[in-house]
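User: Hi! I'm working on a homework problem where we have to compare a predicted structure to a textbook description. Could you give me the structure for the chain below?
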Amino acid sequence: MLSLILLFSIRVSIAVNPLYEFSYMSEGTVVIMVYWILINWAS
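Assistant: Happy to help. Predicted structure tokens:
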């Protein structure tokens, strides 16, 4: 549950911080990695 909140916080920070627009692809890769870790950890 805490991981999901953390993930949500990351998504919100990307949405509200215009600086993230320049590094959106790299940030997106981080989010995908977090999802992958969560999926493997949950199963």
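For your comparison, note the following. The two ends are 14 Å apart (CA to CA). The chain has a mean pLDDT of 70. Good luck with the assignment!
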